[in-house]
Design a protein that fits this description.
about 190 residues; alpha/beta; Spore Coat Polysaccharide Biosynthesis Protein SpsA, Chain A; 7-stranded mixed beta sheet; 9 strands
Length: about 190
């Protein structure tokens, strides 16, 4: 696995508004005794060479997880693409992997599988997919996408799926681990999985 992860920056996306959870900082909601984001950090960190946490609130709390915290450069809670944008701008490696803070079960081989597909397919971005459902926030992309993403965001665009479909994208099937992509968006979902 060491050879596969060489040259990869990771980012846990925790910069949203948490509207479906009452506008709380979702990454800091407790789940099985720890903040939601801590689960994602624990799963992603061993898969990458460098890790950031994208957060627009409570930066000091997120810094306590032991990794640099990046705020969005784009104003107004522009969504997960703004977190990817900040990570691409700060990454010291040519590839950047993203995961959301609300997915505590993400696969331990996520980055390796996305990286293999990215290399084999000659793509600029690899996206996880289960069944026919793409999960664009679980992606690995080339840092060279930064200028185009900057332009996209500057035009006021925010949709991750629209952006990735305009790239040389490849979707990677994770049907063997579909439950790993469960994300927690509401208090009811949090309670049900607790």
């Amino acid at each position: 696995m060491e050879a596969t992860k060489k040259g990869i920056t990771g980012v846990v996306l925790a910069g949203g508004q948490g509207r479906r959870m009452g506008s709380v900082d979702k990454g800091l909601r407790m789940f099985r005794g720890r903040p939601l984001a801590a689960w994602a950090v624990e799963r992603l960190a061993p898969q990458v060479d460098e890790l950031f946490i994208s957060a627009n609130r409570n930066a000091e709390v997120y810094a306590g997880f032991g990794y640099p915290v990046l705020g969005d450069v784009v104003a107004g809670y522009a969504g997960p693409l703004a977190g990817l944008h900040a990570a691409l701008a700060h990454a010291t490696h040519p590839l950047v992997a993203t995961v959301p803070c609300d997915s505590p079960f993400l696969p331990n081989d996520l980055v390796a599988r996305l990286a293999a597909a990215l290399a084999d397919g000659g793509a600029t971005i690899a996206i996880a997919r289960t069944g026919g459902q793409p999960h664009p926030v679980f992606c690995l992309c080339r840092r060279e996408l930064l200028p185009g993403l900057s332009d996209y965001l500057a035009r006021g665009e925010r949709r991750f799926e629209t952006w990735f479909r305009a790239q040389a994208a490849i979707e990677v099937a994770f049907d063997d681990q579909a439950e790993a992509f469960t994300n927690i968006n509401t208090d009811a979902e949090l309670s049900a999985l607790e």
